[in-house]
Amino acid sequence: GSEIASDLKTFYGDRLVLMKIHSGYFARVSDGMFSYDFTNDAGDALYDYFSVQQNPIGLVNRKVHEGSLLHPPSAWGDVISQIIDLDPEFHIDILLDYQQGNLDVNIEITSLITCQNTYYISAFLTENGIISPQRTNNPNYPTGVIEDYEHNYVLRKDVNGVWGELMNEGNITPQEKFNHSYEVQLDSHWVPENMSVIAFVYNASNKEIIQVEVDALF
């Protein structure tokens, strides 16, 4: 799954934003080399809400495709190709200020449409460059483990709750702006230089993500 996600990221570049959630059976820890705990409350809540039953699995903008929200890696490229060229409905700017473990996050959303829908704004912290063993069926690793595997786009924490904050009530007009500010405390074992904030707007009625942006702390 990670290999396919990385290939899609290489192909689409900045047009594709990834967030990887570790939860459920395959995220359990054990003594020895698999003692690193990647799980967190936000990831567990999303995993449970979307009723994940197998891994790897993914959501693409939380969009239904062939009757399902959850898509196997083989379908990710197809779902992405169907929505990647749609005109954006919102523009998102993220302004970050990090000082000694404290992160100030300011998110400004500008509407590009007229609509009557209700939207929420969600934001999450992710981290790249986490070196920790990973099981694999790659024949180049006869032990079945990549000991120096690099985990990227790992969900660390929600910025404004698992389901974010209400963005609007009532009609939206073009160029209307919505500002949201938050303060987040980073854990001491996270590496700020490897961290980013993902912010997205989603439809309140079905939780489908409408637009997303990402910005690195450094």
Give an overview of the whole structure.
The chain has 218 residues and is α+β, with helices and mostly antiparallel strands. Helices cover 14% and strands 32% of the residues. The chain contains 3 helices and 12 strands; from the N terminus they run αααββββββββββββ. The strands form 4 sheets. Strands 3, 8, 9, 11 and 12 form a 5-stranded antiparallel β-sheet that branches.
- Residue share in helix: 10-25%
Could you give the count of β-strands? 12
**How many strands, which pairing sense, and closed or not: the largest β-sheet?**
5 strands, antiparallel
Please provide the ordered H/E string of secondary-structure elements.
Answer: HHHEEEEEEEEEEEE
Give unreliable regions as ranges. Answer: none
Helical/strand content category: alpha+beta
End-to-end Cα distance: 28 Å
Q: Globular, elongated, flat, extended or rod-shaped: what is the shape?
A: globular
**Rg (C-alpha, Å):** 18 Å
Strand content: 25-35%
Oligomeric state: single chain
Residue-averaged pLDDT: 97
Q: Please tally the helical runs, counting DSSP H or I stretches of 4 or more residues.
A: 3
